[in-house]
Give the backbone structure.
Amino acid sequence: MTDEPSAVPLVEMRGVEKSFPGVRALQGVRFDLRSGEVHALMGENGAGKSTLMKILTGVYQPDGGEIRIDGQPVTLPTPHAAQALGISIIHQELFLMNHLTAAQNIFIGREPRKGLGIFVDEAKLKRDAAAIFKRMKVDIDPGAEVGHMTVARQQLVEIAKALSYNARVLVMDEPTSALNETEVEHLFAVIEDLKANGVGVVYITHKMDEVKRIADRVTVMRDGQYIDTLPAAQTAMSTIIQLMVGRELADQHRATGTGTAEEVLRVEGLNRGAMIRNVSFALNRGEILGFAGLMGAGRTEVARAIFGADPLDSGTIHIHGREQKIATPADAVANGIAYLSEDRKHFGLVTGMSVRDNVTMASWRRFLSSGLFMQDDALGKVAEEYVRKLKVKTPHIHQETRLLSGGNQQKVVIAKWLLRDCDILIFDEPTRGIDVGAKAEIYRLLEDLAAQGKAIIVISSELPEVLRLSHRIAVMCEGRITGELDGRMASQEDIMTLATQRSSAAA
Amino acid sequence: MTDTAVQPAASGKPGFFTTQTMQKAVAFVVLVALLAFFSAFASNFATGANMVGIMQATAVNGVLGVAVTFVIISGGIDLSVGTMMTLTAVMAGIILTNLGMPLPIGILGAIASGAFMGAISGAVIAKLKIPPFIATLGMMQIARGLALVFSGAKPIYFNDTPNYGLLSPESSISKLIPGVEIPNGVMIMFIVAIIASIVLNRTIIGRMIFALGSNEEAARLSGINVDRWKILTYAICGGICGIAGLIVSSRLNSAQPALGLGYELDAIAAAVIGGTSLAGGRGTVIGTIIGAFIMSVLTNGLRVMGVLEEWKIVVTGVIIIVAVFIDIVLRKKA
């Protein structure tokens, strides 16, 4: 059933619009997919790739636009409806039931029955699964429990599941992010086979070399808009990167100064599994060090390891020139290190508690009388002071923090660490979920803190943010620091080049 | 009382009608309504002797309820409070009757043994990462077994310690204020409640317990030694179980090693009826005490009305579900 790429595309999306409260996620986006091609979809984090694919797979409903399958207009009200039309998605995080076997996972909810339809026909279940694996030319035991398989094999089970629905369109969201070299090769062989059988594959990735290897065409998106579609083989990587980052930043505010020469933090040879590989860097007083990279590059992992939230396999951490053992967050805090998680609601704030209690939480022990009783008046005063200093907008310090806006919640977390006298502040996505106006305020606050002598690390997936704030930029890819750039001179292209540098190319 | 009720709203404190005060208010209204209902329809209900009986019955469940309130607010659960109470009573019996030591040592021994066992539960939960439900289910059996082993499966009587009655059936306050026949056990419950309230609302222990129950991970990432505070929480719970053990054995003038199973469910029910959230982070001691009173008024009232004992159990079950439903509704509104 090898179809020639025909005139009528398999999938055609035109003028797709989608808004979420406060954000226009997609504006007039077009995309098409031919039978038997691999079509790479590229763009920075937040460019709209996932939203577009969620619309194609029936997860989101578009606000406007048209979707045609085989030239026929369709609506895709549910993922189930999309599946019925042969559209399946392999998510970055796999959705398999770990305690069930491969065969049970593939046919979940559609098990063949026997004995008046009461019993599952396990034998047929296995046979059918084995047949699909054979067609894919992979060697997986249909009776093996999925939880015991490698991620690569689990992914193949997901693909088998999609094929069992007679998938003609397969969306793969960064399928190689957790695979090693051989596994990637194996996956590509399976994809080639799917192509040969006329399946259209949408391949979301950040990795340039993969696009070159496997894709026939590339579509680039940026800020929720369609930018261009190009033939993969004939297009230079630099062209694609330029299309992805797009906007010129000439007039944008950049970091000035360089911090001081006084070293505050130095880490050497940090390792933790595959996520942190031989990471070393130093941070000076008054400096803002940006950590750039794509999602899953290992930046958050490095931050959590330095903060003692996750154990390290190896490596040393030096604070003010002296090696310190940091095994728990309590150790880190005692050394003046603070970590401000991107997920404030889960890791930063106790949302059910008041502004006062959150601001003072890391310092409660300083506000005790007789070593036991909380000096609530003193707590209140100091909380008032920080609310004023950081301009936290709250009706009063007894307001529960869940009722504050994102920007004000972030300020409460910052206040907590300032009060605790932390002088190394690690910000993970400091402006996620914060609106544009409040962003500028957070930026100014960070700059003020650096000017006051704090040493600051900013992890950010938004390139303009990294460039706006950083004196120096460390770029990570696949657990390694692939390069360091001068924040005052670096361009988005420089960062993207380092962020997409695969380990194989470096090795 | 929480600090919300003590301080005027004008100082910028949240208003009086927070969810928690609402929940307590609802529980209180239910209690008053029950009292009014039974007074009107059960002729022997509103007598002095019956009221004393209700209070007697509330004392043990109230104290155990306060114990488990600490743990529930911290985001955990303790199923061992009932058998822990029994074990501590047996410990008091061994110290006072078998070893013939003076009363204060017996009191301290009961409380300390409860705190020690509680700390073990806490350590198992914090260090071995065993879920609280399982860890304290195990401790429930361990305490029950130890109580039987230590006592030789026979009751230990306190006949050699004539002052033991001071811990519950006697009423010291009636000597100060004639006519007020509140048993000492009930007075102890009120004192425990007041101290517990102060600990929860005014001390760093309480603040930590609320923080753990609201968001343990955020507390950990704030540099707080979560394990240590967790162990302390279960130790406090165990220590208060020791007080309950003293009250119950004083009332019976004996440590009954077979007693204790089922008390944990009544204690959890009292806390839940009083508005303590099983999800952690929310709850008050006063609510739990009201919850314990609701349960014993209901039990007593139905008995006085001649309703079958078995039905009272059914009604208690319904009350628990209704109380939690009210909690959910109130929380959605907030």
About this structure: Residues 1-17 of chain B have pLDDT under 50 and may be disordered. The two ends of chain B are 20 Å apart (CA to CA). Chain B has 13 helices and two strands.
